[in-house]
Amino acid sequence: MYATTGIIQGNAVLTDDSSLERYNGRKVVITVLEDEKNFATLQDEKLFEYSDSLISQNMEAYKELAK
Questions:
Q1: Where are the beta strands (DSSP E) in 1-67?
Q2: With contact defined as beta carbons under 8 Å apart, do 53 and 33 qualify?
Q3: Of the candidates 6, 32, 2, which has an alpha carbon nearest to the alpha carbon of residue 19?
């Protein structure tokens, strides 16, 4: 599993993470965070905490993707 952040512009999700190239063709789950700020920088520990929380909340969707 891999997590990164980006922004939605039109029908595209934009990110500066070039390591995503190795994941071409894989299914993804996109979570849109409703936030007053357009972009925030987080420490890795906080990002992992948020990621784990989102995974827990969306476990059924991840099970469907795994099929």
A1: 7-9, 12-14
A2: no
A3: 2
Residue type at position 46: K
Burial call 1-27: b when 16+ CB within 10 Å, e when fewer: eeeeeeeeeeeeeeeeeeeeeeeeeee
- Alpha-carbon span 28 to 65, nearest angstrom: 8
* Residue among 57, 36, 49 nearest 3 (CA): 49
∠56-57-61 over CA atoms, to 5°? Answer: 95
Mean pLDDT value of segment 34-54: 74
Helices (H) and strands (E) in the chain, counts: 2, 2
Mean pLDDT of 16-28: 83
pLDDT, residue 36, reads 63
Write down the pTM of the prediction: 0.39
